[in-house]
Amino acid sequence: MRTSGAQIVVVGDGPEREAAMAAARRLGLAERVHFTGFRPHREIPAILGHTDVFAMPSVYEELGSVLLEAMQAGLPIVASRTGGIPEAVGPAAELVAPGDAGALAAQLDRLLTDEDAAARLSRLARARALRYDWRRLADEVLSIYDTVCGRSDGADGAAGARRSVRARGRAGAPPGSARGEELALVADPSSASSGPRRRSSADPRSTAASSSPQAKGIERVGRGSLAPSE
């Protein structure tokens, strides 16, 4: 990444963490790349609220639930074009080939410096997140059951089941509340005077990258409010 002052916060834990930390030190990036380790899920919203760009550079991913969190938070997203990611994000993300570090960095730099592009992706992300509302998902699943079962229980039974699922959906966590994916969040250093450009809440966990309005501030947030993968 070429954006001056950009900070990366890696949220989460795993067998490659020590190697990644060693690589950051070897490359002289220890002051820009911050590893928080595992953080409780409740701390993730604060991390998302202090970032400007979310990155998910997975080599493969069936469905990264952290993407749903990022979309709900209205963050511009850069992710790998692999597995279920393209279908999950639709037009609400910039996609790059898995393992293409150059393309990933270029997209992150662009979204950190092009406010119009970042704002457009933010709007698309919030709109896309509505597709994953619990009630909508429950209705879609129940309609499939109705079709497969030929509505054998009758319309009244299906309606009752739908009400029951909706009630559970309202009481439970959002669809994107899984734990253990990789995520990266990047904040714009140019926002130092006014603070983070966005505030949001969601629940991802694993790798976060945050460019700093103040590197120290992001680091404090990272240590005191993040959530990693299990």
Q: Which properties best describe this structure?
A:
230 residues, alpha/beta, Rossmann fold, 2 domains, 6-stranded mixed β-sheet, 9 helices, disordered C terminus
At CATH level 3, the topology of the largest domain is: Rossmann fold
How is the largest sheet built, in terms of strand order?
2-1-6-3-4-5
**Helical proportion?**
40-55%
Instruction: Give the radius of gyration.
Output: 19 Å
Poorly predicted tracts of residues: 164-184, 186-230
CATH superfamily of the largest domain: Glycogen Phosphorylase B
Overall outline? globular
Largest sheet: 6 strands, mixed
Strand content: 5-15%
Number of DSSP strands? 6
What is the H/E string? EHEHEHEHEHHHHEH
Structural category: alpha/beta
Class of the largest domain in CATH? Alpha Beta
- List the total number of helices: 9
Please identify, by name, the CATH architecture of the largest domain.
3-Layer(aba) Sandwich
Q: Give the terminus-to-terminus CA distance.
A: 28 Å
What is the domain tally? 2
Mean pLDDT: 74
